[in-house]
Every structure is written in structure tokens, then in C-alpha cells.
Amino acid sequence: MEIELKQRYPVLVGDPERYEIVLVGCGGTGSFLALHLARLAYHAREQYGREVALTFVDPDRVEAANLGRQNFAPAEVGAYKSWTLATRYGTAFGLRITAHTERFAGMHLPRGPFVLLVGAVDNAAARRSLHQTLVQQRRGLWWLDCGNHEHAGQVLLGNRHDLAAPALSPLGFCEGLPLPSVQHPELLEGAAAPSGGASCADLTLRDVQGLMVNQAVATYAAQYVYRLVVTHDLDVYATYVDLQSGSARSLGITDRRFQRGRHIRSLQVLETKRACSS
């Protein structure tokens, strides 16, 4: 196993008056991540006086096939996923969570000094939409991407499409990272639906996709957001987790140039053509 001994650089967030977090995809991973984000927003407000504004975006409705794998109850079948989660957790924690029940577009991104786009989508076309939006915005918005297949997944962080290595400040902070789509261009490659057109929910019912992988990926993603918003000490940019082997590995932010795709292939934790996260 490779041991990381190089100096790590934490991401520079500053101290904005308001943190804007937009969750795109409220299915397999997103439905669990929504709870973590609401908990984090409540904690940041009550313990630190920090305002964390949450927006959930997903055009899909809850289906019976989603129950069990996704974080929904039978009584919620037929309701929009984003609206259901925003209402549930907004009420539980006393938060004003915005819900959009249409496909993600640039208009869903708020203005502000700190905007984090959290992607929990399940196909290359949706990721291409996120990538194109961020490139067009040219505001250095941060993108935290979540993905998985049967028993493994990854969390990737970035904010720049024109970098081959981290942008480091003289004071020892990281100001820029390559977007997830730059770190792993294969995430944007067109692919057929998993297993000949079956949905992610169908794969779960056939025991092809593990029941716990979405929640595991959501937990790691939430830790990224926690370290960005609350502790301000995030010094990793990619995490790969495999539930079958019980292993997880994170890559630190150093002055090293990125080697695209090497870590994914070596750890065998991503199959783009069978990716499911929503």
C-alpha cells in the first residue's frame, strides 16, 4: 500500500456569511445525503451561528421500487423526491429548504461567495449537464460528485476545469482542484443503462446492487461537506470505498499532479457503464 508522506493543503473556504449547498439527485445516495446535510445545517446554525442554505433538485417521484434502498417510506410513493425530503427535514430541523421538481439547470445555482454543488446522479448524461453548467458559470464553484456501482463507490471534489494539479497559495491553502470530470473523464462518457436497461432499483431487487452502498457513499460525502463548512480543514479530494473488501482510501491534496483514472482502475471501485447513485 502506498503511504502518503507529502504535505497536505486544506481547501481555502474563508468565512462567508452564507454557505449555499445544492444537492442534485435525491435518489439512492441523495436521499440519505439529504438527511446528513440537514443535520449539518442545523449543527452549523446552533453551534457556530453559520447559515447553511440547502436546495434539493430532482424531477423524479418516489416509486414502490425505491423503497428499502432509498430513504423513503411507503406513504411517500407518488410524491416528488426533492419536495418530500425538503419538507421532511425542513420541518424536523426548523430549516427552510428549497425544492425543485424539474431537471437541474444553471438557474438552480444561487449566487454567493461559497456555493457547493453536490451531485448524486446516476448516469453520464446527468454528469455532463453538471460539468457543462460549472464550466459555463466560470465562477470557481465547487462540485462534490458521488457515484457507485454494486458494492463500491467514490466521492470526488473539484472546482476548476483547467487544472492538472492543485492550485496552492503561498500561505499553504488549496484554492483550486480539477473538477471530478477532469480527474476522471470517463464519468462523462455515454453509457447504456445498467444491465441492459434495468433501473438501479431493479438491480437492487435482483440483489445485483448492494443495499448499503448508497448510504456508505453518502456518509463519506457528508464528511467532506462537514470539513468544508464547519471545521475548515478538508485536505483530501477523492475517496474510494469498497464494502466487499471493507476498505476505503482517500487521496490527500498535495503539490502532486493528478494521474487521471489510475486510482479508480487500481482499486476497481468504479465501473462507469454500471454506475448507480440515484
Short description:
With 278 residues, the protein is of the alpha/beta class. It has helices at residues 30-48, 81-93, 124-137, 180-183, 194-197, 200-205, 213-231, 262-267; strands at residues 18-24, 51-57, 98-100, 115-119, 142-148, 152-158, 167-168, 174-176, 236-242, 247-252.
Can you characterise this structure?
With about 280 residues, the chain is an alpha/beta fold. Strands 3-2-1-4-5-6-9-10 form an 8-stranded mixed beta sheet, with helices on both faces. Strands 7-8 form a two-stranded antiparallel sheet. Helix 1 runs parallel beside helix 2 (about 80-95) and helix 1 runs parallel beside helix 7 (about 215-230). The protein has helices at about 30-50, 80-95, 125-135, 180-185, 195, 200-205, 215-230, 260-265, and strands at about 20-25, 50-55, 100, 115-120, 140-150, 150-160, 165-170, 175, 235-240, 245-250. The longest helix has 19 residues, at about 30-50. Residues about 190-200 and about 260-278 have low confidence and may be disordered. Helix 3 links the parallel strand 4 and strand 5 (about 140-150). It has one domain (about 20-275): NAD(P)-binding Rossmann-like Domain (Rossmann fold).
Query: At CATH's second level, what is the architecture?
Result: 3-Layer(aba) Sandwich
How many DSSP E strands?
10
CATH topology: Rossmann fold
Amino-to-carboxy terminus distance:
32 Å
Unreliable spans are: 191-199, 261-278
Estimate the strand proportion. Answer: 15-25%
The CATH C-level class name: Alpha Beta
Structural class comes to alpha/beta
| Tertiary shape | globular
For the biggest sheet, the summary is: 8 strands, mixed
CATH superfamily: NAD(P)-binding Rossmann-like Domain
Query: If you compute it from the alpha carbons, what radius of gyration comes out, rounded to the nearest whole angstrom?
Result: 18 Å
**Average of the residue pLDDT scores:** 85
How many domains comprise the coordinates? 1
Helical content class:
25-40%
Looking across the biggest beta sheet, what order are the strands in? 3-2-1-4-5-6-9-10
Which H/E pattern describes the elements?
EHEHEEHEEEEHHHHEEH
Number of helices in the DSSP assignment: 8
